[in-house]
Amino acid sequence: MVSLGDVFLGAGAFPGWTPAGEVELFDRENIYDLVDGQAEAFFAYGFEQVAVRRYESAEGAVLDVEVWQLATPADAYGLFTVSVAGEPAAIGNDGDADPGRRLAFWQDRYYVCIRARQELPDADLWGFAEAISAALPAGGERPALVDRLPSDGLVERSVIFFHQEISIQSQLWLGGENLLGLGPGTDGLLARYQVGGAVAQLLLVQYPDAEAASAGLAALEGAHIGSLVAADVRDNLLGAVFGEVDEAAAGRLLTSAISSR
Fold first, then answer.
1. Full-prediction pTM beyond 0.85?
2. Range of the domain at 222
3. Is 84 helix (H, G, I), strand (E, B) or coil?
4. DSSP 154
5. Closest CA relative to residue 195, chosen from 256, 261, 260
6. pLDDT > 70: what percent of the chain?
7. Euclidean distance between CA atoms 66 and 19, whole angstroms
8. CB within 8 A of 23, min separation 6: which ones?
9. CATH code for the domain in which residue 57 is found
10. What's the chain's Rg over C-alpha atoms?
11. Residue 162: which residues within 8 A CB-CB, separation 6 or more?
12. Structural domain tally of the chain?
């Protein structure tokens, strides 16, 4: 098992950059000191600990490096998906870049984010990212549920993997009362699709058993959510389509996603 403090290299490891202080470690007890008011968003992905270190260049530029350790590779993938905000980057299992400003990736059960306080040459960000990637365990598979997403019409980089409602509330509002009975034992996906000339949202939730999935469907249909177009279950899998889309097209998308494979 890797020690998070060991993935940070010391003075001289990155030419032109010097550590500004020691590695700071935050766990479930003191994470609030780092992300006050946002800790629950990380707990939803099995947060265990995060290591943070700041670096400064001779010219006064500042880089902040965070290495998040989650419970499983699926959790690391989920935290990555909910944080995607830039361009694809070929680092780790999946990377995300805002050139000159930010570079993030997930690998094994770790999520890494490198942020610059001011615009920098991409080579500096990549130097840090590649060194940290090499120090972390390799591997980590995407959750099997991702394979259920139909490829036709899927909006690139729109997929969010989640366990709890808090992770998708900014994209799909379900009332904030855990309508679907989500928790650590549920796996979910939310993805956008181009359906004709409209955009639909496909929601998939895999429950521990069929009874829980049926209860989730009943609660969803009873909530009278205006954007809901179609919903159904197959065994322990709940699927639903939201948006201003044709009911027949929504039904086809839903059937494709939840049919046996």
1. yes
2. 144-258
3. coil
4. B
5. 256
6. 97
7. 13
8. 4, 5, 8, 51, 52, 53
9. 3.40.1000.70
10. 20
11. 44, 78, 82, 168, 182, 188, 189, 190
12. 2
